[in-house]
Amino acid sequence: MVWLQSAIPFIGILLLFQRTTAQPIPHYHFINSSLTWYEAQYFCRIKYTDLATMNSMNDKNKLVNTLGSHVTHSWIGLYREGTRRWMWSDGRGRADFTMWTDGEPSNSEGKEWCGELSEEGWWNDVECEKERSFVCYERQEEGEETYVYYSDGLSWMNSQDVCRSEHSDMAYVTTEADNSEIADLTTSSSSAWIGLFNDAWMWSDGSDTSFRYWMRSTQYGGNCASVAASEQGRWSETQCKEKATFVCQGGLKVKKMVIRMKVHSDVDLTDSRVSDALLKKLETLLKHQRMTDFNLSWRGDKNGIVFRRQEELEAGEKTAMERKTVFFTVGRLYHFLKIPMTWSEAQSFCRVNYADLATVDNMEEYVQLLESIGSADVSGIWIGLERSASYRWVWSDGIGEQDVYPFSEDKQDGDCVMMKTSGYWEKSRCTDLKASLCFEYDSQGTESYFLNTTLLSWRDAQSSCRQDHTDLVSVKTKEQNTDIYGHTSGYQIWLGMIADNWMWSDGSPTSFRNWEKTNPDNNGGAENCVVIRKSFQNQWDDTACDRSYPFVCYGEQKIRRTTVKVRISSEGNLNLATLSDSLLKQIQAQLEEQSGTEVKLRWQAAKNGQIFQHNDNGSKETGC
Question: Strand 132-139 vs strand 191-203: parallel, antiparallel, or unpaired?
Answer without folding.
Answer: parallel
